[in-house]
Structures are given as structure tokens and as C-alpha cells.
Amino acid sequence: MSSVLLEVQDVCKRYGEREALSGVSLSVQKGQTLGLLGPNGAGKSTLVSAICGLIRIDRGNIALHYSEAGAKNADSKKYIGLVPQDLALFEDLSANENLSLFGGLYGLSGKDLQTRIQSALELVSLADRAKDKPSDFSGGMKRRLNIAAAMLHDPELLILDEPTVGVDPQSRNAIFDALEVLKARGKSLIYTSHYMEEVERLADHLVIIDHGKVIANSSPAELYQRLPAQAALNFELAQALAPEQKNALLAMPGVMALELASSACTGALRLQDQDHAFACLQYLQQQGHQLLYFATAKAKLEEVFLTLTGRSLRD
């Protein structure tokens, strides 16, 4: 049996002269968390709308492989939970009433619905606010209630479109905690964002979109392999590096670049990997340098995006 839950093949979508999606292909495995990255306007929300059947594509194919035998395309929406970028709540209904309404749209009722509502509120840490209205909630709490609404029907695939925009740190952590629980339950997730650090925490596969095209489709580890420098050694010295010492550091195995502040006391060595840091530290000590500070750091996905596109993710 195939482990593929969602297949997107050569999808194109135009809005007048603008091509929002240009031959986009990707797949989501069962139990996988796929991070969908790209700057604002890259096509992420258009792709999400296409997957959910909210817009009609011009070309290509989108298929969801159900675990339920005999399911038809018309049933696809009950296998998908969508957390939209724009809040979809009734401000003057309580959290309970909002979820009762959304549950009813999925054909849920009675004791089963109430059990699911309680479970969903507990998942997003809002069980103690069940009788309160979203009009009294913070922006982050509203986002969490949106996630609860998307999970009521127990979908196989949960799609979250920029779920942390305008969210306070407490709600951001609560959202991440909830998603970690869903991952542990074997749910498939698509998480769209232009915040690399969020996707680094959650995703085990990454798709980067720019100008409506897929420019990377691989695991985080494979993406890092595209960087000439995958790690750094940041340091501060009591005295400046001499020119011959700079040259010696640059000639050492695994050193890709040396970035120095104007004082030549503070800088960063760009390394192929962290294993080369020790030899560099050893050399500095042998040269009589007093290390006031040093720390190793891994390359970030932001650097991968910059390498692939020539611009920052948030440009």
C-alpha cells in the first residue's frame, strides 16, 4: 500500500497576466509534516486553496489517497482540515458555540460532537475558556480556536496557512505543542510560513516556492548540503588577528570564509561542518590568542533560501 496521502502534479494557476502557480509538483506522505516555505506572494496560499478545492486550477492534478475504501473526490474535504490565514470565527458566539456550529457543518452532533469539542479545546489549551467569546480573546487565542475548529472532524491532513501571524509568544508555544501532539498521533501536516525557524522546528520535509515555482523539494538535511558553509565558529579575541594569521585560518581544512569586524578582534569562520571548529580554536590558542568568547552555530534555512534565490525570505 502506498504511503502517499497527497499528490500535486504540474499544477498551474493564472490570475489574468500573473501566473500564481507554474508547474508545481509535490507529495505528502502519511504521517509527514511538510513545511511549505516562500516569501509573501510566492504562491503558498494559492496552492493551499487549490488543494482544498477552493479554487479551480488551470492545469495539473491534485489527488488525495484516502484510507477509506470507495471514497470519491466529492468526499475529499472531510479528509482535510484547513486553518486559514484569515480568522474564520463568529465573534459573538462562545468558543463552544463556534465549534458546535463548525461541527454541525461536518455532520457531527450529540454526544460525539461534545466529546470532540472538549478534546479539541484541550488540544489547543482553551478548555478553560469554552464559554467565553472570541471577541474577548487575544489574536493568538483566536488562532488556536481556529485550529480546534479544523480538527473537529479528525482529518487525515491538516493544512495550516501562516497560523502564527500576529500571535503572542504564549499562543505560539501552545500552537507548536498542539502540532507536536498531532504529529505523534500520525497526522499529516502542511505548514506554510515565511518564518524559517518555525518550519525548522516542525517539518521533516521542505518545499520552497518562489514566484509560483518549486525551487527546492527535499529534507532539511539535503537542503543544508547545498550550502558551501554549513556551520560557523563565532569568536571574540583579546587582541586583533594579524594578517598572516587570517591567511593561515583561511588555508585550514574545512574553512570556507572569514568574516571580521573592523577591530579584527571579533569575527566568524564559515565552516563546511562543525567538526572543523576545534582545529581552528586550537590554532588560535597556539598563536597566543586569549579567547574572550566563542560559540559554534549551524547554518540556518534562511541562508539556504538566500543561496537558492539571491534574496531574503522576508523580502
UniProtKB/TrEMBL annotation:
Tagged with keyword Membrane:
yes
Pfam families named in the record: ABC_tran
**What Gene3D superfamilies does the database record attribute to this sequence?**
P-loop containing nucleotide triphosphate hydrolases
The molecular function terms of the Gene Ontology recorded here are: ATP binding
This one is known as: ABC transporter ATP-binding protein
This protein's UniProt keywords: ATP-binding, Cell membrane, Membrane, Nucleotide-binding
Residue span, ABC transporter domain: 6-236
